[in-house]
Design goal:
By secondary structure, the protein is mostly helical. Helices cover about 80% and strands about 0% of the residues. The chain has one domain. It has nine helices and no strands. It is globular and about 45 Å long. The termini are close together. About 45% of the residues are buried.
Length: about 220
């Protein structure tokens, strides 16, 4: 069984990681805009393929949709910021639907408080960075995604933390839009934080769903 899983499924994860690492080191390399766009989309796109082959049922379908929309957004951002943002908002809505379908029945006070903090602080910090109403509205979806991920029944220290890394990555993007100068930090950290977050979310959700409904 383990050998079969390795041969048939984990290559999707290995290919995803390889694509993400390659993009990180080649993003400012003149190998051609189209190839870089496709390479960027492959990182999370291959996570969507991994989720597709490893899950079944409605929750698995929603996860695949959320990841596929994120991959499309990654590529669209290289062409048009607004289109990319709209696709990411759609991805967050899909993820929110998944997490609300899988709410944790018994939440501690600290879990509830952190979820509320993510919901409120994500757009608040975004507005401080950008003073841009449209970007702040987008970050409401981002904050709701992180809050519902943290309070879902999926592994908090994988899926919840992954969602928080997603927020941190977007904050670094937003920092470029205002008066706060973080020097080289955005260039160094945006992609690693984002991809690590998506990887943790994908593997955490798949692990949970796979344990409940093994896919032959």
């Amino acid at each position: 069984m383990a050998k079969t899983a390795l041969v048939e499924h984990r290559p999707w994860l290995l290919a995803s990681v390889a694509a993400a690492v390659a993009f990180y080191f080649l993003w400012n390399n003149p190998i051609g805009g189209l190839w870089l766009i496709l390479l960027k989309g492959a990182g999370v796109g291959l996570l969507a393929a991994y989720a597709f082959y490893r899950t079944k049922g409605s929750d698995g379908t929603i996860l695949v949709l959320a990841l596929a929309l994120s991959a499309a957004a990654d590529m669209a951002l290289e062409i048009d910021f607004v289109t990319g943002g709209a696709l990411f908002a759609a991805s967050h809505l899909a993820a929110i639907a998944l997490y609300l379908r899988n709410r944790r029945e018994k939440k501690s006070t600290s879990q509830s408080m952190l979820g509320a903090a993510l919901l409120v602080l994500t757009p608040s910090v975004t507005y401080l960075f950008t003073s841009d109403l449209m970007v702040t509205i987008y970050s409401v979806f981002l904050g709701a995604m992180a809050a519902t991920a943290w309070t879902s029944r999926f592994p908090r220290y994988r899926v919840g933390v992954g969602a928080v890394l997603f927020v941190l990555s977007d904050w670094l993007i937003f920092s470029r839009m205002g008066p706060i100068d973080l020097s080289l930090l955005p260039d160094l950290l945006i992609w690693p934080l984002y991809y690590a977050g998506q990887l943790m979310i994908a593997t955490g959700v798949v692990q949970t769903l796979r344990g409940e409904h093994p896919k032959p």
